């Protein structure tokens, strides 16, 4: 075995788990799941069958990653945050054929207790504040908070708020890295100097 699994964790036969990943207390990984290398699954994490988890993701305690959720490289899922996969669930009506894809792109942070409604795409390095409810797509590098989510700023790939307006034309350099951020209209792009 090229990964660590705590004795209380369950990994169903068929699950694909990358090298150096760590699966902690009472976690459950279903048979169809694909988990990359150096991933950390915290206590009581559930990973469904139709789920992909990219390399270097960290999924904190008490997070359930349901079918049709796909996490890119380096995604952070804060404690007790929530994914959904049916938009209009009813206990008495079976809707497993109506699961919607949720895509979380490289480097995004999903804060503690936030909720990501199914069918949304979270852009690269976006930052979802704790307790936020996301019910529409979030742009790359956007900082969003509230219920429902509202953009209040921009975040660097390093994980700090950038001194930029929500829209306009401006360029700024990250004080910690060589990355340059260019705002054009309401879109932010990163380039290396």
Folded structure, characterized:
By secondary structure, the chain is an all-beta fold. 0% of the residues lie in helices and 38% in strands. The protein has no helices and 26 strands. It has strands at 4-5, 10-11, 16-17, 22-23, 28-29, 34-35, 40-41, 46-47, 52-53, 58-59, 64-65, 69-71, 76-77, 82-83, 102-104, 109-110, 115-116, 121-122, 127-128, 133-134, 142-145, 150-155, 161-162, 168-173, 179-185, 187-192. A ten-stranded mixed sheet has the order 1-4-7-10-13-16-19-21-22-23, with no helix packed on it. It has a six-stranded parallel sheet with strand order 3-6-9-12-15-18, with no helix packed on it. It is globular and about 50 Å long. The termini are far apart. The mean pLDDT is 97.
H-E order:
EEEEEEEEEEEEEEEEEEEEEEEEEE
End-to-end gap? 41 Å
Strand content: 35-45%
Class by SSE composition: mainly beta
Order of strands in the sheet with most strands: 1-4-7-10-13-16-19-21-22-23
Largest sheet: 10 strands, mixed
Mean pLDDT: 97
Number of helices: 0
In total, the number of strands is: 26
Residue ranges: pLDDT <50 for 5 or more in a row? Answer: none
What is the overall shape?
Answer: globular
Helicity level: under 10%
Write down the Rg.
17 Å
């Amino acid at each position: 075995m090229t990964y660590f699994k705590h004795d209380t964790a369950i990994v169903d036969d068929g699950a694909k788990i990358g090298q150096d990943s760590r699966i902690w207390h009472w976690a459950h990984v279903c048979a169809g799941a694909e988990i990359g290398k150096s991933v950390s699954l915290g206590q009581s994490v559930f990973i469904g069958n139709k789920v992909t988890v990219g390399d270097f993701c960290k999924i904190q305690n008490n997070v359930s990653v349901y079918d049709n959720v796909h996490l890119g490289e380096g995604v952070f899922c804060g404690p007790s945050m929530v994914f959904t996969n049916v938009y209009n669930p009813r206990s008495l009506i079976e809707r497993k054929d109506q699961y919607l894809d949720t895509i979380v792109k490289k480097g995004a942070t999903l804060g503690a207790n936030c909720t990501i409604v199914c069918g949304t795409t979270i852009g690269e390095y976006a930052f979802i504040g704790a307790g936020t409810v996301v019910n529409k797509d979030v742009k790359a590098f956007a900082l969003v908070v509230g219920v429902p989510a509202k953009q209040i700023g921009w975040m660097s790939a390093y994980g700090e708020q950038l001194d930029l307006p929500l829209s306009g034309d401006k360029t700024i350099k990250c004080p910690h890295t060589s990355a340059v951020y260019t705002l054009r209209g309401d879109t932010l792009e990163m380039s290396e100097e």
